[in-house]
Amino acid sequence: MTLSEHRYALTVQWTGNLGGGTSSYRGYSRDHDILIPGLPVLKGSADPTFHGDRGRYNPEQLLLAALAQCHMLSFLHVAVKHGVVVADYRDEATGLLKLNRDGSGQFERVTLRPQVTVADEQHVALAAQLHHEANQVCFIARSVNFPVEHVPTTVAA
After folding, report:
1. What is the DSSP secondary structure assignment for residue 57, as one 8-state letter?
2. What is the Cα–Cα distance from 94 to 5, expressed in whole angstroms?
3. How many other C-beta atoms lie within 10 A of the C-beta of residue 53?
4. Would you say 45 and 53 are in contact if contact means Cβ atoms under 8 Å apart?
């Protein structure tokens, strides 16, 4: 492995065998654990629409979270490069998933709504422009095949 390659590994363990395995569509739970050494177990399931547990994270939420996290981290990096001091960052992200007649589906788009507070009022306009550059370096956004839109709000502290 070189410095330009990074590998990631985790274990997904299905915990939803209610005794009969997958003998019927409603006869098993979609619950599972996401195991990453050294980190707390992430409790997963399907979206409740697909017979999942509302109290657990579903893959659609985790994909949306990965996009929002990656954009935030990329934005903070780009802000530092441009001398913009970010005092606060919050994102109210949404995603649209469309189902097909055959039961498949895909995300159509994700909209990130970062609310950024910068320390210096003179950097408000520049910070608002940096979302484009952050999107260009976000590993996750560059890896998906649907649009990741940005509707930023930037204010001074």
Report:
1. B
2. 30
3. 17
4. yes
| Residue with the two structure tokens 């981290």 | 73
Q: How far apart are CA 79 and CA 130, in angstroms?
A: 7
- For the chain of 157 residues, list the mean pLDDT of each consecutive stretch of 10: 85 94 92 96 96 97 98 97 97 97 96 98 97 96 97 96
95 contacts: CB under 8 Å, gap ≥ 6 = 60, 63, 64, 67, 107, 109, 110, 111
**Side chain identity, residue 78:** V
* Alpha carbons within 13 A on the beta-carbon side of 39: 11
Q: What is the DSSP string of 91-146?
A: E--EEEEEE-TTS-EEEEEEEE-EEEEES-GGGHHHHHHHHHHHHHH-TTGGG-SS
Helix, coil or strand: residue 49: helix
> Using CA atoms, how far apart are residues 50 and 100, in angstroms rounded to an integer?
14
